[in-house]
Amino acid sequence: MVLAFFAYCSLVSIVAGFLTVALKNPVHCGIALLTLLLHVAGLFVLLNAEFLAMVQIIVYAGAILVLYLFVLMLLNLKTDERYLHSKLALILFAAVAICGELLLLIVGSPFSGLKGDAPAEVVLKDGVSYAVGIKIFSDYLLQFEIIGVFLTGAIVGAIVLAKTPTSADTDNREA
Amino acid sequence: MTVIPLSAYVALSAVLFATGLIGVLIRRNFIIVLMAVEIMLNAANINLVAFSHYLESMTGQIVALFVIAIAGGEAAVGLAIIIVVFRGKISTNVDEINLLKW
Question: Would you tell me which CATH number, out of the four given (3.20.20.70, 3.40.50.720, 2.60.120.560, 1.10.287.3510), belongs to the domain B28-94?
Answer without folding.
Answer: 1.10.287.3510
